[in-house]
Amino acid sequence: METPGSQSSLHRANLERVVRAVRMAGSLTQAEIARSTGLSAATVSNIVRELKDGGTVEVTPTSAGGRRARSVSLSGDAGIVVGVDFGHSHLRVAVGNLAHEVLAEEAEPFDVDASAAEGFDRAERLVSRLIERTAVTPGKVIGVGLGVPGPIDVESGTLGSTAILPGWAGTKPGEELSERLGVPVYVDNDANLGALGELVWGGGRGAADLAYIKVASGVGAGLVISGQIYRGPGGTAGEIGHITLDETGPVCRCGNRGCLETFTAARYVLPLLQPGHGPDLTMAGVVQLAREGDPGCRRVIADVGRHIGSGVANLCNLLNPSRVVLGGDLAEAGELVLGPIRESVSRYAIPSAARQLSIVPGTLGGRAEVLGALALVLSEMGDSSLLDGARDADAAAIARPA
After folding, report:
1. Residue 224: partners with Cβ closer than 8 Å, 6 or more residues away
2. CB–CB of 168/147 below 8 Å?
3. CA 183, CA 190: separation in Å to the nearest integer?
4. Is the CB of residue 357 less than 8 Å from the CB of residue 316?
5. Model confidence over 128-167: pLDDT tens digits?
6. Which of the residues 141, 226, 293, 394 has an alpha carbon 20 to 30 A from that of 379?
7. What is the pLDDT of residues 4-60, one digit of tens each?
8. Roughly how many angstroms between the first and final C-alpha of the chain, as a whole number?
9. Nearest CA-CA partner of 211 in 318, 91, 333
């Protein structure tokens, strides 16, 4: 029994602080661990040695600032995490370890408007196939991160919006998938997972406060405040697509008029171009044609950028983030869309907030959400299980006959 405030409980807390820092970053030098945890270099050195001896972390030589250093990461054998991402037209699954290495990844077409049961069946089969492919023992799986394109009630875990996924409304995706896979499942919406993915692996690295904007069949924002996803008490924070731009504008699926989504989402934008480009046009196709010089596509991309910029300006005035990351197919348009976004932000945001803001494209493309699902497990899992697992492994090794 550890007494609160005792030397042993303080040591345990320091062990968990170091493990947590490495778990979220993937790998850190000992100097970086000291800076992020506030522990002394000597304390970090002793803790890393103890964790290495226990099999919790691996230490490899590296360099930092031209000097020799040691990179610390969680052991590749410490556990496995799985990410599952339901997009509107695809299902993507990734399997990774605690050292932030993706071991296997696969995507397949899927109409998310189909029944929830069919979606869970497909996810279960794909997860099982990838785990088998990586030759991972199923018992090594610590948890699964699950992304869905709709708002999740934080308290109940229920998918709430009938307008977005009518066949899924009222379901509890995390509970359903957990029963099928036999491990904890952590659920969030696709925009939040995109933000986590870019924060840990992509264009958001190094930013403590950012907004990830995803424009697809809908428009959403994942908000990171002080390094943590902000969901709001009901889990609906970041619904930037329903900021009103024009009270007399088109009727939105939410029932209001002139929402940002009605000027930027694919379902509203593509019909503007289909008479001249055919009914099979997609947002990815629009971006490609715009990059090739098509004047109509360029005009539509610029208009979409200006409208997104109005929404981003509102975010700047309210939250003052340091970085905005644009995800989805639209990010591939580069300056064709980023330039108009910056133009609107400069016009509508408070000047001091606009000056501090950088607007960048996401670097992960369609993988942002599934990598964010992996990061969700890494952020939600506890550190005690890693330390206790290493201790139990040591005890077993000592007790095993030679």
Report:
1. 195, 196, 199, 204, 207, 208, 209, 210, 211, 212, 230, 321
2. no
3. 21
4. yes
5. 999 999 988 888 899 999 998 877 887 888 887 655 667 7
6. 394
7. 557 888 888 899 889 888 888 888 999 999 998 999 999 999 999 999 888 888 898
8. 31
9. 318
